Structures are given as structure tokens and as C-alpha cells.
Amino acid sequence: MARYDFSPTKQKIVLLLLTGITLGLTKSSKAQWKVIKDLPKAWKSIDRQVLYRMLREFYRERLVDFREEKDGTAVVVLTERGEKYALRYKIDELSIPVPLRWDKKWRVVIFDIPEKHKRAREALRDKIRELGFLQLQKSVWIYPYPCKDILDFIVEVFEIRSYVNYLDVTKVSNDAKLRLHFNL
Questions:
Q1: What pLDDT does residue 17 have?
Q2: Cα 96 from Cα 94, distance rounded (Å)
Q3: Would you say 25 and 66 are in contact if contact means Cβ atoms under 8 Å apart?
Q4: CB 94 within 8 Å of CB 131
């Protein structure tokens, strides 16, 4: 799958579509006013010409599709491929919730990602570091709180599921050092 580096406006459009904020389009000038009046503020902040140009571009790249409604308006929806690209921009908002009490389990992430997926490997490493994981070895990271769902999301976004393993561990040889690091 090709990697797209979207401008902030393109990112906004893709994320709005991902969150389910639909955009109705019509050629009828009477219906256009109704559609424009009903648009959420987030859509109104994007220049119409820029929006239509970007939507045509997304359509050519098969990131969006148009679905015609009964009233004749066309609704723009993300394709499955478009959803994958949109999720790449939501990854920056991820955080791991910290429970009130630690369950005394360590979460270990182990990966062996081939050189042909070097960018995904580096992105995974950067993201888990950003989330607060501690590196034990080059491709072994540890964290004290439940994070499987978030890790699953990350590996899906980077398309590296088969190279990443997640472990719940109750004993680690350098437990005291790790507890100190994570203030446990």
C-alpha cells in the first residue's frame, strides 16, 4: 500500500469522514443550499473548491466513494482503504489509560520486523517509546499496564501483525529496577 503524506486540510477531510461526519453533494443549486446549511461547522471551514478537488483526488486513489441518496444528493463515504489511511492520523492521539492499581503484571512487546518493513519497524518503535514503554533489548519493550488493544491498533495501522508478539508476564529478572523506572 502506498504511503500518502497528506496536508493538514487533507488530514482533516479524511478524519471527518472517518468519524462519520458525512458530506452531501448535489448538482441542484436549490438542494446545494440545503446541504450547505446542514453541514457541520467542521466542513464549512474548508474552502469549497479545495474540498471538491481533494475529494476527486481521493476518489481517484480509491480512498472515498460516492453513494447516491433517495433525494438525489451524493454522500461521500470512506472506503475500507480510506479508513486505513485515516487511522494513520488518529494514531497520534493514542494514550494508554493508567489504572488506579497496578495488577503486578508486565506487558512485553517483542518484534522481529524484516528490513523491507524498516519504516514500519521504526514507526512502531517510536510510538511505543512515546507511549512510555521501556526498551529492554533492541526489539523487546516492557510496560506495566494493560495495553493490548492499543498495541493491536498500532500493528494494524502499520500492517505488521505477523511480526509482533504481546506477552503478559508476572516475573521479570530485574523487577526492582523496572518498578523504580515506572514509579510502582
A1: 64
A2: 7
A3: yes
A4: yes
- 3-state secondary structure (DSSP) of residue 67: strand
* Pairwise pLDDT comparison (141 vs 9), residue with the higher score: 141
76 three-state secondary structure: strand
What ranges do the domains of the chain cover? Answer: 8-91, 99-181
Whether 164 contacts 109, CB under 8 Å:
yes
CATH architecture of 8-91: Orthogonal Bundle (1.10)
- The secondary element (H helix, E strand) that includes residue 169 is strand 164-169
Average pLDDT over residues 107-136: 92
Q: Angle at the Cα of 155 (from 17 to 138), degrees rounded to 5?
A: 140
User: Under CATH, to which class is 99-181 assigned?
Assistant: alpha beta
Measured CA to CA, the distance from residue 78 to residue 81 in angstroms comes to 8
Q: What is the pLDDT of residue 180?
A: 94
pTM for this one? Answer: 0.57
Q: Between the ranges 35-39, 42-46, 85-89, 102-106, where is the mean pLDDT highest?
A: 102-106
Q: Mean pLDDT, to the nearest integer, of 146-155?
A: 85
CA dist list (Å): 39 to 32, 35, 43, 45, 52 = 10, 6, 6, 10, 15
Quick one: which of 129, 123, 139 has its CA closest to 96?
129
